[in-house]
Amino acid sequence: MGRVVMYASVSVDGFVADAHDRPGPLFDWLTGGDVPLDDSGVLAVSQRSYDYVRPYWDQIGVTIAGRHVFDLTDGWDGTPPSGVEHVVVVTHRPAPEGWDPGAPFHFVDGVEAAVATAQKLAGERVVEVAAGDVGGQVLAAGLVDEVRMDVVPVVFGAGKRYFGSVDAQHLLDDPDVVIPGNRVLHLRYPVRRSTGG
């Protein structure tokens, strides 16, 4: 099975959006460089960011997101973001009325079922979990292999927390990637596994 990676751009004080679900400047680094990140003509980053982000994006097979993010993005108009093949949506509700059943979106109740579904779909590719409430639940369930953060130099003061409502301690290993880019610091932490005993 592929790795399960919790990922998002985040403020220095740990928020993935402000209190009104707006990302503010969190994605400015994705348009502030001179190296195209994809074929959209919109995303361009520094060479250092490209060398880190592009290979990672190419490994992602499935993204797991919550229903709130799905609704905020209008379900990405039925097309998974960033070239991802499938999206697994964690929700207690069915697909929206009129939703195309052929779209590569899977509506699943609970994070354990979401990860299991995503891993079947992804095979050996990465399962990416959007940070926030769902990401925090997947971390708390012990199902995250690594945490990736694109830390942006802004302080929100309040908003949607990177780890959602996690209220217990979870140890990460030392970062094995620390890469400064333009207006961003890329960090990658393996998740420390409990050895029991």
Automatic annotation (TrEMBL):
<protein>
    <submittedName>
        <fullName>Dihydrofolate reductase</fullName>
    </submittedName>
</protein>
<dbReference type="Pfam" id="PF01872">
    <property type="entry name" value="RibD_C"/>
</dbReference>
<dbReference type="GO" id="GO:0009231">
    <property type="term" value="P:riboflavin biosynthetic process"/>
</dbReference>
<dbReference type="InterPro" id="IPR024072">
    <property type="entry name" value="DHFR-like_dom_sf"/>
</dbReference>
<dbReference type="GO" id="GO:0008703">
    <property type="term" value="F:5-amino-6-(5-phosphoribosylamino)uracil reductase activity"/>
</dbReference>
<dbReference type="InterPro" id="IPR002734">
    <property type="entry name" value="RibDG_C"/>
</dbReference>
<feature type="domain" description="Bacterial bifunctional deaminase-reductase C-terminal">
    <location>
        <begin position="111"/>
        <end position="170"/>
    </location>
</feature>
